Amino acid sequence: MVSAPLRIIYFGTPEFAIPSLRRLIASRHHVVSVVSQPDRPRGRGHHLAPTPTKALAQEHGIPVLQPEKVRDEAFLESIRALRPDLGVVAAYGRLLPESLLQIPRLGMINVHASLLPRWRGAAPVHRAVIAGDTDTGVTIMRVVKELDAGPMFASLRRPIGPEETSPEVERALAELGAALLVDVVDRMADGRATEMPQDERRVTLAPKITRDEGMLDWNLPAVRIHNLVRGLQPWPLVSSRISGGRTLLHRTAVLEERTTASAGTVVRAEGDRLDVATGGGGVLRLVAVQPEGRRVMSAREFLAGHRIAPGLTLDS
User: Fold this and answer.
1) Residue 157 CB: number of other CB atoms within 10 A?
2) In the prediction, which pLDDT does 41 show?
3) 38 within 8 A of 53, measured Cβ to Cβ
4) Are 120 and 108 contacting, i.e. CB atoms less than 8 angstroms apart?
């Protein structure tokens, strides 16, 4: 016997939250409201633009709430009035107070982009890529007061390719998490869901990315720089000063060869090859770069417009 559909309030803001919201809308359950962060100015004109989840909710006629403060009693009362059975969170972007967590009859669950308890926090995908993890995954967990510490309902593992960037991994995890979410919600509705506590001995943290992390130190090993280039996308990106100007690094490749050149020294600059010495004698190839204020270009295009020769030392 199939149980009655659940009344769900969905908390989510960016693109990562879209696949899960789509799947819930298409499910047998009812999304009675979407809660998103307020609209922010975007683009060169700094015009207010709806958040991704708000735009999708409006397409389906779902009411949208965008509180400045989730602790405001007026907002909490509007949530109570919706009589939700369950709250679902996917990259909402703010911590939810206990007063809010207690409103839905079945509590709140979260779509988290890591294999908990590894990478609790705001930037789990970025931290996994920066650390050089070879796999990651998505976990559906109960939301509790402590950040990402609630018991887990289900998880799925996914490999991280050696050239994949944070946005590429995040898009894949968003789709993976959406399918897993609906299965968990169905099981919660039917009374079949089980929860497993996290192993506190295995916890690692994934703090928010800061701008300073994009400042390149050529003394780092080549693979470490390569992982930073992959992980610090789409912001703040890794940068170095080349020919006197700040240049963003979008794609790199770790070469197998070794060099005795000092870290930060150009060892090859011809054709498609712009190779730089790194710490420990490694060599990193710059595949796609972006001079400040210009478009992303290949190494060949970049070399055609800049006088760079072997022996040149690059600055951080």
Assistant:
1) 10
2) 82
3) no
4) no
Q: Is 282 exposed, middle or buried (0-12, 13-18, 19+ CB in 10 A)?
A: buried
Residue 194 buriedness (CB in 10 A; 0-12 / 13-18 / 19+): exposed
Residues sharing a CB contact under 8 Å with residue 44, sequence separation 6 or more, in sequence order = none
Residues 307 and 71: their CA atoms lie apart, in Å, by 57
| Count, residues in the chain | 316
For helices 52-59 and 18-26, the axis angle rounded to 10 degrees is 20
* 114 close to 135: Cβ distance less than 8 angstroms: no
Cβ 34 vs Cβ 64: under 8 Å: yes
**Token digits of residue 177:** 């998490």
Which one-letter DSSP state was computed for residue 189?
H
Domains in the chain: ranges and CATH: 7-202 (3.40.50.170), 211-304 (3.10.25.10)
**How does pLDDT run across 45-74, given as a tens digit for each residue?**
678 899 999 999 999 999 999 999 999 999
Q: What stretch of H or E contains 185?
A: helix 166-190
141-199: per-residue pLDDT in tens?
999 999 999 999 999 999 999 999 999 999 999 999 999 999 999 999 999 999 999 99
